[in-house]
Design a protein that fits this description.
alpha+beta; 29% helix; 4 helices
């Protein structure tokens, strides 16, 4: 009976998490593209990343927009690697990510999604209040913002837009 209870609890937890807990889109600056062949090479490499449904590369702006397949998440670390494998340098990345915010043991806000997590960092008091409210309520949120590696080699998300979803 205990095993059945544990199994049902695990199933409920899996289905109670947001169905879209994922990075649904990502834009990345690609430094060094100089010709249409460069853009094609970057696009070709980015399309090989698991979960990617479409890639649009704009050579003039030096940006690549990557969209995820339905129910998949884009692995931002693999995006950087794919750009590097194409012979270029990945610059600033902006993501749209769905997940839940929680506080860690040091009261740092962390966004949990698709089995991963990102530390949240903001200089805006208003945004901090909003993010703390979402953490306390356990509501699912959609965040859009810049993602980067800090000096401690931790991935950080600096949200610019916060949209609350269903509780």
């Amino acid at each position: 009976m205990k095993i059945l209870y544990v199994l049902l609890t695990v199933i409920l937890l899996l289905f109670s998490s947001p169905a879209q807990a994922r990075i649904s889109s990502l834009s990345v600056a690609v430094d060094g593209m100089a010709c249409p062949f460069c853009a094609f090479g970057v696009e070709k490499r980015l399309k090989t990343v698991t979960g990617v449904s479409s890639v649009t590369v704009d050579m003039k702006t030096g940006m690549a927009l990557v969209n995820a397949k339905p129910a998949h998440s884009i692995d931002y670390q693999k995006i950087s690697e794919a750009v590097k494998d194409a012979g270029f340098t990945a610059g600033d990345m902006v993501v749209t990510v769905d997940g839940r915010i929680a506080k860690d043991t040091l009261d740092t806000l962390v966004l949990h999604f698709n089995g991963s997590s990102l530390v949240l960092q903001t200089d805006s008091n208003e945004l901090n209040v909003h993010l703390n409210g979402a953490a306390e309520s356990s509501r699912s949120v959609v965040l859009k913002g810049q993602i980067f590696l800090n000096s401690n080699k931790e991935w950080i998300l600096r949200p610019e837009v916060v949209k609350e979803v269903k509780p």
